[in-house]
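Hi everyone, sorry if this is the wrong subforum. Our group has a chain we'd like a structural model of before ordering constructs, and none of us has done structure prediction before. Sequence below.
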Amino acid sequence: MILDQDSVFLDSDPLKAGYKPISITKVTHRDEFIVDYTNGLRETMIGKVPSNILIYGKTGTGKTMVTDLLLQHIVNKAHDRGIDIFPVFIKCENTYTDTAVMKHLIHEFERKLKIPHKKIPNAFTEYFNRVCELIAAKEGVIILVFDEIDKLKNPDVINNLTRLVENRQADKNVCIIGISNSLYFTDSLDPRTKARLTQSEIVVEPYNAEQLLDILTERAEIAFKEDVLDEMVIPLCAALAVQEKGDARRAIDLLRVAGDLADKNCKDMVAEQHVREADVVIDAEKTSKIVNSLPTQSKVVLISFLKILQSNKFADITSTEIYDLYKVLCTEVDMDILTHRRVTDLLSELDMLGVVSTTVQSRGRSKGIAKYVSQNKSIDSNSLCELLYSDSSMNLLEEFEMKSYHIGSQMRF
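Answer:
Right subforum, don't worry. Here is the predicted structure as tokens:
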């Protein structure tokens, strides 16, 4: 029976999402980041509200882990000095609307401060006023952490929380910490919000291969039984993760899934082949999750690109060509048509997610610059189409014929 099979794992928890070291002092290869971060929050040690901080870095660079552990450390140190620090985390991937943010803050304040829930009208202004009441009622330094802040539908909601004293909505300000995977996140912000949110900025560098080797070795020692890893397993996991821009989460997932595959195949050793199989499995799962979570407009933009790509395999598809077809496809499914600029932004977001690749190139003095979109070679276009058309609202677009379609003044099909 499967339940009776032996496993290569001692404890797989150190390889699962959410696992973190027991303290900030045990974090590997993030010393410079921690020093910069600590300096940014130093004023909390004398009971003052520090400047707002915006942290940038690619996925898997330790931004959230370090934030969580550092705040735990600071809260404990401040408590020893008789100073109260009150951090609240907002996961913007799930809490992304203005009202949802306020409702989450109310829930966290009421829960942690053991304040009875107060029923209020279902309106943003009422929720915001309640948040201001709770902020005024809490002694000490309040720190609001917006994890994946770029996922907020309206990031300018932050502006309401950075001007409490100025607008006489509370007698003290809060510290806002924003964590973003995108270096371009602030480009779309209202200038006032951008100025307030970026009072202090920290860019977190990706891990290199040597650093990933150290991290994987540490995790493997407590996750696997002795002598069950082939000598090439950890170096290969690190090498593949470096190709993914130094993503430590990717490296750890590769190691975990490789172990799972060894168990599934009743092997007593994790081999190089298991890592390569894990790479394929993770890519497929990641692509499926990304595509299924895309907004409808982004799906139509992506379908527009894929239809042009698959019709003639052009290597130089411009955002303008995609936009021309996008407008036609929107008409086919009776959808609102976004502006060219907004569609270009959506293409940049698809690039950030790793679904496509974009570059900006000059076409000469008379023709200006253009954004070119190309296929991410690690993702099969047919698989993308299959995922997109599995959405019932996209069914009509699967039947759209490209044979007679024109792009601009030039027939390309």
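For your construct planning: The first strand starts at residue 53 and ends at 57. The beta strands are 53-57, 85-91, 141-147, 175-180, 200-204, 317-318, 356-362, 369-375, 406-407, 410-411.
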